[in-house]
Design brief:
This protein has one helix at 2-18; strands at 31-34, 37-40, 45-46, 56-57, 65-69, 78-81, 107-111, 120-125, 131-137, 147-154, 161-168, 173-180, 186-189, 215-221, 226-232, 247-251, 274-279, 281-282. By secondary structure, it is mostly beta strands. A hairpin with an 8-residue loop joins strand 7 (107-111) and strand 8. The protein binds copper (II) ion.
């Protein structure tokens, strides 16, 4: 008799877990209640409580994340960030993150990596050749006695160009200092033509983004001598826009950097006559 009572008690307890007080069947996690029936959560949804009134759509792991734990009818999808692994994902619900492409030695990166996109390498090689060029300046017409040497140096096509020089027999003060487009001095400094301007911009100062490549501003003479050095971000000794074979020209007047308001401020900087020039040539390095 005791056994019967115990078995009955167990049965009552068992029903208590899975039945509502009204006697209806209890719906499990992973199910939802529809009237008196328990229906499984549809694919893509879940429930974590018994007798859920409805199921909840699984979370979507966004681009830049990956699925750390797959969803089930009774649990949500768990996402984690690819950045924590130093990788990326470019699809939603990515099963894992992808390692970034590594640009081969000397190949330039044209697009930075992000948590949702890969690095892009354009295949163009970086030239790491040091190039040194030198210019001997004088006045082919003989009208002035200005002369001197200017040297340009660039370590790679992605580095600044450096220049240094000394000119003598100048009047004291500022003198426009430019790279002109032609290395032809057959007609004197005049045949060096206009400022070197491969990107079709207006005349400006060396610090301006809107300037001719050849716009190096002014040099300053004191006691008849100008000794100067500088760096420039636009002058290239490498590649298609190399200035080698073109000319450096020094002018009688200051370059107004395009700001003087003269009719020629936007083309020549109103820098006046050409008093010395020279062709930019490769320096011999034994
Ligand atoms: Cu000039």
């Amino acid at each position: 008799m005791l056994k019967v009572v115990f078995a009955l008690g167990v049965a009552v307890a068992f029903v208590g877990v899975f039945a509502t007080p009204t006697g209806a069947v209890t719906c499990h996690v992973g199910q939802y209640r529809s009237n008196d029936a328990c229906l499984p959560c549809a694919p893509g949804s879940f429930s974590t409580i018994r007798n859920a009134a409805s199921c909840t759509t699984h979370k979507t792991c966004l681009k830049g994340q990956f699925v750390k734990k797959e969803p089930t009818p009774s649990s949500n999808r768990l996402c984690a960030f690819c950045a924590s692994e130093g990788k990326f994902s470019n699809i939603v619900n990515a099963p894992s993150c992808t390692a970034y492409t590594v640009c081969a030695a000397g190949v330039k990166q044209t697009k930075r990596p992000t948590p949702t996109s890969d690095r892009v390498c354009d295949g163009a090689t970086t030239s790491t050749t040091n190039i040194t060029a030198v210019v001997a300046l004088f006045d082919p017409s003989g009208a002035s006695t200005v002369s001197g040497i200017v040297t340009f140096l660039q370590f790679s096509n992605e580095s600044f160009s450096r220049f240094t020089g000394t000119l003598t027999n100048l009047t004291d003060g500022l003198h426009g200092f430019h790279i002109h487009e032609s290395g032809d001095l057959s007609g004197g400094c005049a045949s060096a033509r206009a400022h070197y301007n491969p990107f079709r911009k207006v005349h400006g100062g060396p610090a301006d983004s809107n300037r001719h490549v050849g716009d190096l501003g002014n040099i300053q003479a004191s006691g008849g001598v100008a000794s100067f050095s500088g760096i420039d971000q636009q002058v290239q000794l490498h590649g298609d826009t190399s200035v080698i074979g073109r000319a450096v020209v020094v002018h009688a007047l200051p370059d107004d950097l395009g700001r003087g308001g003269f009719s020629d401020s936007y083309t020549t900087g109103h820098a006046g006559a050409r008093i010395a020039c020279g062709v930019i040539g490769l320096k011999f390095t034994p």
